[in-house]
UniProtKB/TrEMBL annotation:
Name of this protein: histidine kinase
Residues covered by the PAS domain: 288-333
Ranges annotated as spanning the membrane: 249-270
GO MF annotation list: kinase activity
Stretches assigned to the PAC domain: 364-416
Amino acid sequence: MPPSHSRIRRIPHQLWLGASLALLALLLALCSLSYLVYRDWRDEQQDNLIQEVLWLEQSLRMHLEAHQEWGDALARDIAAGKVDSRRFAQLAAFYLRENPELVTLERIDTDRRVEWDPHGLRRDERQLGLPEYDAMWRAGRLLRNSYGAPYQGQDGKYRFDLAIPIVHDGRLLGGLRLSYQLDALLYHQVPWWIASKNYISIIDLGGKTLAQKFDAAEQPGNISHQTSFDPPGYGLYLRAVSYRSGLGLTLPVLTVVIALLLLTLLYAVWRIRRHMRERLLAEQRLAKEVSLRQAIEDSMKSGLVAIGLEGEIVRVNRAFCDMLGFSPEELVGSHPPHPFWPADQHGVLADAMDAVRDNRQPEQGFELTLMRKRGDTLVVRLFATPLVEEDGGQRGWIASLFDITERQRQRKEMDAAHSRFLTVLNGLAAGVCVVDEDSAQLLYANPGFAELWQVGDADAPCCVLLPGLKAGEGEDIGQEFIVTGERCLLIRRRRIEWVNGEAAWLAILSDVTADRRREEREQAQQERFQNTARLIAMGEMASTLAHELNQPLTAIHTYAAGVSRRLPEELALPAGVRDAIQAIAEQSRRAAQIVSSIRAFVKKHEPQLERVDPARVVQRALGLAEPLAAKNAVGLQLAADRSPCRVDMDPVLIEQVLLNLMKNAIEALVEAGTARPGVELHTCVENGKWRVEVVDNGPGLAAGMQDNLFTPFYSTKPEGMGIGLNICRSIVEFHRGEFGAVSSQEGGCVFWFSLPLAGVEES
C-alpha cells in the first residue's frame, strides 16, 4: 500500500482521538467548574443566611427579655400598691404604642377574670378562654414568668402570651398578660436588610406556617435555615429561606473557558470534515466497480437480472436461467416483450416495468406470471433496485425473482382449510378461545366467545384474564364456573401447544345460566318442602303434646282442689302448706290454660282475647323469669310506665312472649360471659300503643345474625330449634302488633314489640 494511503488511514484515528479528548476535557471542565463555583456560592449564601438567622433570633430574644424585665418591674409595683388601675392604663397605653407587636396588656386575677386593661378598670367580668389562660396557668403554678402555647385569635392570626405573676408575701395575687401577634412581631422586629434578602417565617413542629414576612416580588430559593424560637418555645421555629440570586463574577470566567474549549472542538471537527471529503472521493471511484458485483453476490439464491433504461436485459445469473430454461445468450440484449413473457400477460408485465421506472414499486414487490421455455408457467415475486453510476446517474435496475409457485399452491390449500375450520368454529354456540399461558393475551376467539365474554372484537389482541387458568401447577385439564352479572358461564380448559410452540390454554365457554337457575329453583323448592314438612310435624307434635298434657294437668288441679277442700279449717298445719296447695292448683290451672292456648294457636283457632291491664301480665311474666335470672346471677329489673291503659290480648300468649324474650336474653348473657349481666324490662304508652322492650348488656347482634333472626329453624344455640322468635312474632302480629330487634348504642341488643291500646284503631 502506498505511504500516502497509510497516512490517510492513520489521520482519522488521530483526529477522532483528539476530538474525543477535547470533548471529554470540555465536559469535565464544565462540570468541575460549575460544581466548584456553585458549591462555593452556596456555602457562602448558607453561611450568610445562618449568621442572619442567629442574629435575628438573638435580637428577638433580647427584645422579649426587655419586655419581661419591664413586666417584672410593673408586677412588683402593683404588688406593692404603687400602681392603681388608672396608672396601669396610662403605662399600658404608652407601652402598646411603643411596641406595636403587642396586642393587649391586661391584669388577670386568680379566677381568670380581666381586672385591668389599657382602658382602666373592667367591670364586665370578662374571663379568659382556655388558650388565652394557658400562660397564666403555668405562671401561677411555677410563680415565675411563663410563655403560653401559640393559638389562633379571633382575627384568624396566631398569637402567644407572656404571663408575669403578681406575688405579695408569697401569695399569688394574679398576673400580667402580654399578648403578642406573631406576624406583627416579624413585621416590626425583622430589619429591612434581612427581609429584603430572605423569606422569614415562624413554623410549628408540623411545618405549618404561623406567621411570615416576605417580598411578593421575589421567588424563594433552595437555601434555608431554621432555629428554635425560644422564647416562647413550644416547638416554634424561626425559618429563613433566601431569595434566588445569580452567581456574580463567576459567570464571565465560566463563559471564557467554555468558548476556548468550543474553539478547540470546532477545529478538530473541521479537520475531520476535510478528511471525510478525501475518503468520499476515493469511495466514489470504487462505487461503479462494486455496485453490480455486490448486488449479484447479495442475491445468489434468487434469479437476478440487470435491466437497462429501455427495458433491455443487460445481464442474468445462472439461477435466473435455470428458473426459466433459457440460456444467457437467448436473454441478454432482448427488449420487451421478452421471450419468457406469456402472451396473455404482456400488459401486466409492461405495467410492472413502468412502475419500476416511476419508482412505484409496492413494498411486497410484484407477483408476476412468467413462462418457461418448455411452455408451462410459474409464479414469481419480483423486487427491483436502481443501478446508480459513480456520478449519480442511473444505468438501470437490478431485479431479483423468487419462485413462489409451490408456496402459492400451499397457501391456497391452507386458506381453504382455514376457511372451513373458521366456518365450523364460528357456527358453534359455545365460545372457543386460546389464551397465552404467561401473558394471558387472547390469541384466538370465535364470535361465540366474544358474545359470551363481552370482549367486543373477537380478533383484537387484547388481554383476557380467565379465572383458574394459572391455578394449579401441572394441571392440564380443568373447569370453573364464573358468574358475570346475571349469567353463569362454565369454562372447560386444556393446556395445549400453540402454533408458535408456546404453551397456551384452550378454553370452551358455555352459558349454563338456565341450568343453574333451574337447579337453584329445585333446591329452593326442596328446602321449602322440608321446612313445611318440619313445621307440619312440629304442629302435630305440639297438638299431641297439648292433648296428652291436658289430662295430667287437669288431674293435678283436681287433686290439689280436693286436698284443699278436705282439709278442715280448724286443723293446724305447718306454715305455708295451705298456700302451697293453692299455688299447685293455680299453677296447674295456668299450665292447662297455656297448653290449651298453644293447641288453639297451632290449630289456627282464634285465641281468647280479653281486655286486661298489661301491667298484671308483665308482673306475672317477671315472676316466672326471676328464678332463672337468680340462678344465673343476672340482674332483672322492671322500668314500667305507670300510665293506666287497657289492651285486648290473650294474657297467656303475651306472657309466653315476654318469658321467651327474657329467657333468651338471660341465656345470651350467660353464654357470652358478660361481666355484671343485667336485663331490663321497659314498658311505656306512646302513639296509641303499649310498647315493651327487653334490653340486655350483652355482646349484641352480629352483622349476619339480624338478617336470619326470624328464619324458621335458624338458631345460634346448639340445643335450640329456631322457632321461638318466629312463634313470638306470629303471636304479636295476630294481636295486630309489631315485633323487632335492634342493637343498642350502649352495647347489647333490644327486643321489642308493641300492641294497640283498646279502642284505638290501627293506623
